[in-house]
Specification:
The relative contact order is 0.11. The longest helix has 19 residues. The protein contains 16 helices and eight strands. By secondary structure, it is α/β, with parallel strands linked by helices. Strands 2-1-3-4 form a four-stranded mixed β-sheet. It has a four-stranded mixed β-sheet with strand order 6-5-7-8, sandwiched between helices. The protein has two domains: 175 residues, 3-Layer(aba) Sandwich (Glutaredoxin), CATH 3.40.30.10; 200 residues, 3-Layer(aba) Sandwich (Glutaredoxin).
């Protein structure tokens, strides 16, 4: 039987790495009798500023987000974020290298670090320079492979992040071997549950769903498509608040990150039945066109239809939104009048509200798009809308019981 090599890059301080190891404990026996799986573990400690433009906010969100996944899958996870000294961290990192390619041993180190914190047996890696050398070697290997963060699994040319991308690997393996198996890690899809009765009355009591959106973000495209579906299904009003893309705010995005996002968006789109892939990057003039006409679309009561048309145009139809001919097509696709719309192109008012929207996003403790806010629930990522759906379903249940 041919060996299937799975490379797992784990960061001791990363909650997604911790959950991924726990998921692999269940994953391995499910597929092991059909496939010879060989896990190779690489401890890393990557924190590239291009990959994590707001590292403190990312870490805070990651802990909260991981806590929610614990409820879905029944993983172990501390109630409060552990506070560890540098000595405890380095000792545990050294213990990870001692664990070598044992999933059980690696998970034991993570559990000890996240739940207990006492020093572990670090074996021969007591020397700081030797530990740094080993970590740097793995960081460089991760970089050469084409990625930039921990909590990642690499198999035969494709990357899988954390627990919520494992389902893509499962489907790939099932198709590869023609296996009659059910996937294990598919609990983050939207349910779109129906109403029992009194739908109109229920909808009147539901607060709005707010989407923070960038026209250049591939994940925002997926987020908008799903938010529109959710809005229509549950009768929740959708409010979209556009912000400037990262690059137009002076932040850089590495080529590795852009490439990963493109490929990940394609498979996430396929999974969710959303078109994506024929892209015409609107960076610069295309973004300015989009936002300059947003107020006009709002006055016509068609702001969501307008952004959806624009997003589909630049993400699925390859329409050049930087040209007036391309922009005209998009405006007409949204059911708007081009003669009226083009008189708004010189407006610069959008720069003020785009800035306010970004400031509001930061006030929520978030920084990236797409992000969603519903009552007191704020989440980052198109793949986290299921958390919002849970809140909506709770509200529907409460209203129906009154």
């Amino acid at each position: 039987m041919r060996e299937h090599r799975l490379e797992v890059f784990i960061d001791l301080q990363d909650p997604y790495s911790y959950l991924l190891l726990q998921a692999l404990v269940e994953f391995r026996p499910h597929y092991f009798s059909h496939l010879k799986l060989a896990f190779h573990f690489y401890p890393v400690n990557c924190q590239d500023s291009e990959a994590f433009p707001e590292l403190a906010l990312w870490k805070a969100n990651a802990f909260d987000d991981a806590s929610y996944f614990v409820e879905r899958y029944g993983f172990d996870f501390p109630a409060n974020k552990p506070m560890r000294s540098d000595g405890e961290l380095r000792c545990a990192q050294a213990a990870l290298f001692k664990a070598e390619n044992s999933l059980t041993a690696c998970l034991a180190v993570f559990r000890h670090f996240w739940h207990e914190g006492a020093e572990l047996d670090s074996g021969s890696l007591n020397c700081d320079s030797l530990l740094d050398e080993r970590l740097d070697t793995n960081n460089h290997y991760l970089n050469r492979r084409g990625h930039y963060m921990g909590g990642m699994l690499y198999y035969a040319g494709e990357w899988y992040w954390g627990v919520d991308r494992l389902v893509h690997l499962e489907r790939r393996l099932i198709k590869l071997k023609g296996l009659n198996l059910q996937t294990l890690f598919d609990k983050s899809d939207l349910a779109f549950k129906g109403f029992k009765e009194r739908k109109t009355k229920v909808c009147e009591h539901l607060p709005p769903l707010t989407l923070y959106f960038s026209i250049r973000s591939p994940y925002s495209h997926l987020g908008l498509e799903q938010a529109v579906r959710m809005s229509e299904h549950y009768g929740v009003k959708l409010v979209v608040k556009p912000v400037l893309p990262m690059v137009m705010r002076g932040l850089s995005v590495s080529s590795k990150k852009k490439l990963y996002i493109f490929h990940d968006t394609k498979r996430e789109a396929l999974k969710r039945g959303i078109r994506y892939g024929f892209v015409a990057d609107p960076l610069g003039k295309g973004v300015e066109h989009c936002y300059a006409l947003f107020d006009y679309a709002c006055r016509q009561g068609r702001e969501v239809e307008y952004l959806l048309a624009y997003s589909r145009a630049v993400n699925t139809q390859g329409i050049n939104s930087k040209s007036l001919s391309g922009l005209k097509k998009i405006v007409q696709m949204a059911g708007l009048d081009w003669q009226d719309a083009q008189t708004e192109l010189s407006s610069e008012d959008w720069r003020d509200w785009a800035k306010r929207n970004l400031e509001e996003l930061y006030e929520l403790g978030l920084w990236g798009v797409p992000s969603f806010s519903y009552k007191t629930c704020q989440v980052w990522g198109q793949d986290r809308l299921f958390r919002i759906e849970d809140e909506i379903l709770e509200d529907i249940k409460r209203v129906e019981q009154t």
